[in-house]
Amino acid sequence: GLGLCGVVGLAVGLLCVLFVPRMSIGFFVSSSKTPGLPVRQMIVSVFMYLIGGALLTTLGIGSMKARRWARDLSLVVAWFWLIVGGIATLTMIFMVPRLMPTMPAGQEGVRTAVMTCMAVFGGLFGVLVPAAMILFYRSPHVRATVLALAPHHRWPEPIPLPVLPFHPWHFVRAVASRVLSGPPL
Question: What DSSP string describes 71-113?
Answer without folding.
Answer: HHHHHHHHHHHHHHHHHHHHHHHHHHHHHGGGSPTT-HHHHHH
